[in-house]
Amino acid sequence: MCSHSFSQKAMNTIISTQEQGSQARKGRVREAKDFDAVYRAAMHKAKAGWHGIPAAAFRNAMISACRTVGYKMTLAKLSLFCEADGFDQHSGDPLVKITKGKPKKHFATARNANGSTDVRCRPMWDPGWEAIVTLRWDEDQFSASDITNLLSRVGLQVGIGEGRPDSRESAGLGWGHFKVGTAR
Asked: Rg (Cα) of the chain, in Å, rounded?
């Protein structure tokens, strides 16, 4: 196996340069990057102030999980829905409330479209975060056990959020897994 870890020194150099801003080689002035603002802007926060996950993330992940069990994804799109607990304060997108856990800053390297390396700052919840996901579905298409199975497969195989196994951009970073429990 070959391993290549991006050094902390290189990451710190990029962070420092971006925080300070600089004169680009071609004369363009680069604005300083405010990592705190980037971190806050990456959060899904409801108008009521709580953190959430886009409801569409659960719906889309369950539709994707249909391929693991041979269900028709086209039917799932028409008959499977995730109810919102509230709406994003900026975009208005439906959100599912995160009921346990607090975000922390996570810095990671990423490749830009031009091939250059960048540092991204995102909110991350440690394992053990919780959310109560309310689903509705067409009972002629899916049974309650089908829905539980699909949501369980989302937690095990598909994932939710950045770095999930089913990401279109990568094979994932092992993030976004969860276990289905029972509502208290």
From this structure: 19
Low-confidence winner among 43-47, 89-93, 169-173 (lowest mean pLDDT) = 169-173
Report the Cα 16 to chain-centroid distance in Å: 26
Question: 151 Cβ partners below 8 Å, 6+ apart?
Answer: 58, 62, 65, 133, 135, 180
3-state secondary structure of 144: helix
Q: State the Cα–Cα distance between residues 141 and 162, nearest whole angstrom.
A: 30
- The Cα–Cα gap between 63 and 68 comes to 10
Largest CA distance in the chain: 63
Contact 82, 134 (CB under 8 A): yes
Taking the model in full, what pTM does it have? Answer: 0.82
Any bridge partners for residue 136, and if so which? 81
User: Where do we find the tokens 């802007």?
Assistant: 41
Kindly state the DSSP code that residue 155 receives in the 8-state scheme.
I
